[in-house]
């Protein structure tokens, strides 16, 4: 049956992937409260549509870091994409290029960053994890030499969040065929057939001398980041990288201001899709508290499953959203075709929301189209002007 929304693609991904892989994709940290709150945050806002507006010309495009995108979205960096579909990184990048939105390649990609630069097309951003300083330096250099447009430095994974689904499933890197995976794989023949043919994924960016030093190998094996990574170290990367640069994973207003002061082009407000510190604030909530910051772009992510979610984020001041699991559900269900379906669904729903709002363009979308719900009072409140009737 054709998927008509992201939840349909999610269902399909659940049916297609072995349990261990599905849980890695869909799960969050600890009690998964942030995973849920990320979605709930959107429900706190309702639309206030305007009527009788001339809507013959609708322009849903939006500038992201100075260049027009077809709609205000970017494909988020996600690691181990080949677990969901062989050459998953390429499938995501190509679908993003086809949709005219940027794609962000993760440090933990399955294909090397040079391969993506050569074969994907479109606007390419590179996401950096600082696992070890020398290794980080060499990854930045490689991204620079291959022409990535923007460097996205992720700051919210000093250690991995405690993901209990992964612990129960004994999810570990490198992923190997173990009895539980073989058993589960037998019930997911499509997935297993693809992996018998293509092999299980590897980390594609670490086949260099810098990744083979003793310290780098130890850091990679422990799956922990460089614990000494701080503002000064970030500034050194800023000096090394001549292009656009965003800091991902910040939520505190002072951190956001610090990023602006040190010459970043913007931030991605994010709690890592609820996969890191459970009970973190949602990016949407932080967004509502920020003053306008001209010349400094605020992107956000977490829980984007509807085009109307994108409309709310943009109305609250985001220049774009990052799309994480929504694109991965598409990828897991049918590769590049599925990612394309996910992006088309979100784009169509976003356009539909704008038209129904009576808002002719992304540029005109603002807070005046939203109303924040207050908790329902126990007794019905009668508007003062109606009391005299
Ligand atoms: C399977 C998976 C892998 C991820 N890997 C990375 C990564 O390598 N680097 C990174 O910065 N964020 C990573 N993230 C976080 C996403 O970039 C993004 O912040 C998050 O998925 C947004 O929430 P959403 O999935 O609810 O849209 C990952 C998320 C998922 C679901």
TrEMBL record:
Q: Can you tell which superkingdom this protein's organism belongs to?
A: Bacteria
> Which keywords, in A-to-Z order, does the entry hold?
Flavoprotein, FMN, Oxidoreductase
Q: Which cofactor does it need?
A: FMN
InterPro entries linked to this entry: Aldolase_TIM, Alpha-hydoxy_acid_DH_FMN, FMN-dep_DH, FMN_HAD, FMN_hydac_DH_AS
Q: Which Gene3D superfamilies match?
A: Aldolase class I
Occurrences of domain FMN hydroxy acid dehydrogenase (ranges): 1-375
Q: Which family does it belong to?
A: Belongs to the FMN-dependent alpha-hydroxy acid dehydrogenase family.
Q: What is this protein called?
A: Alpha-hydroxy-acid oxidizing protein
What organism is listed for this UniProt entry?
Mesopusillimonas faecipullorum
């Amino acid at each position: 049956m054709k998927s008509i929304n992201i939840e349909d693609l999610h269902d399909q991904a659940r049916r297609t992937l072995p349990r261990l892989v599905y849980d890695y994709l869909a799960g969050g940290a600890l009690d998964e409260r942030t995973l849920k709150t990320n979605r709930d945050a959107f429900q706190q806002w309702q639309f206030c549509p305007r009527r009788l507006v001339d809507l013959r010309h609708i322009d849903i495009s939006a500038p992201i870091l100075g260049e027009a995108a077809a709609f205000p979205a970017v494909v988020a960096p996600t690691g181990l994409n080949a677990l969901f579909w062989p050459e998953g990184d390429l499938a995501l990048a190509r679908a993003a290029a086809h949709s005219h939105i940027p794609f962000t390649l993760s440090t933990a990609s399955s294909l090397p960053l040079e391969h993506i630069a050569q074969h994907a097309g479109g606007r390419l951003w590179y996401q950096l994890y600082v696992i070890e300083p020398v290794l980080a330096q060499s990854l930045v250099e490689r991204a620079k030499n291959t022409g990535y447009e923007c460097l996205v430095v992720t700051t919210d994974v000093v250690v991995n969040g405690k993901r209990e689904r992964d612990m129960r499933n004994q999810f570990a890197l490198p992923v190997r065929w173990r009895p539980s995976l073989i058993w589960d794989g037998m019930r997911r023949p499509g997935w297993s057939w693809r992996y018998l043919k293509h092999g299980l994924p590897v980390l594609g960016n670490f086949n260099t001398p810098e990744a083979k030093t003793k310290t780098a190998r130890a850091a990679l094996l422990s799956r922990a980041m460089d614990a000494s990574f701080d503002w000064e170290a970030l500034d050194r990367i800023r000096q090394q990288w001549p292009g656009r640069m965003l800091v991902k994973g910040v939520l505190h207003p002072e951190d956001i201001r610090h990023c602006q002061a040190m010459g970043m082009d913007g931030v991605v407000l994010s709690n890592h899709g609820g996969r890191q510190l459970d009970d973190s604030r949602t990016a949407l909530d932080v967004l509502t508290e920020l003053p306008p910051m001209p010349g400094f772009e605020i992107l956000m992510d977490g829980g984007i499953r509807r085009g109307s979610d994108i409309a709310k984020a943009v109305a609250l001041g985001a220049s774009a959203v990052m799309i994480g699991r929504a694109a991965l559900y598409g990828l897991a269900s049918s590769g590049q075709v599925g990612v394309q379906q996910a992006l088309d669904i979100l784009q169509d729903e976003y356009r539909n929301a704008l038209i129904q709002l009576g808002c002719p363009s992304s540029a005109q979308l603002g807070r005046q189209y939203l109303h924040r719900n207050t908790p329902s009072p126990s007794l019905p409140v009668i508007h003062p002007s109606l009391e005299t009737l």
